[in-house]
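Example record for the data management plan.
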Amino acid sequence: MKKVLVMACMMFGSTFAAKASGDKSSKAIANARAKHMSDQMIRDLRLNNYQSRKLRDINQQVAEQITAIEEQYAGNPAKIEELCKGVCAKRDSYLENVLSTVQYNSYFGDRKDYDAEDKKFVAQTLRGEESEGIAINAESDQATVSVN
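Corresponding structural encoding:
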């Protein structure tokens, strides 16, 4: 009886550990995604410290939402595209309040380029995790990528 109980506990423990590591991975991807996008936008738009902090917060929220949408609707690219457009529209309205008119116009004109770069970054990150064993550090605010 004790053996059965121990086996059941081990089985549940390993199941919960696998679930927790999966959540950590999506959090790590969202962190890396937000950091990459923010760094690029800060550099391209020449943001000040206040704007940079606000932009990082906005991009973190957006990256978490988009990553969750992509995981939830993994087999339905049309649904992903539709929901991500809504999230990006909210980001646009938040950024309109943070950026100057000139900065916002520059961002708005380059929005498709930023989205394409984000998709390219995520594809490279996911492909790297599968093929090269890339580990993303989810514990820190800054995402670091190390090749095993």
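Summary line stored alongside the record: Strands lie at 134-136, 145-147.
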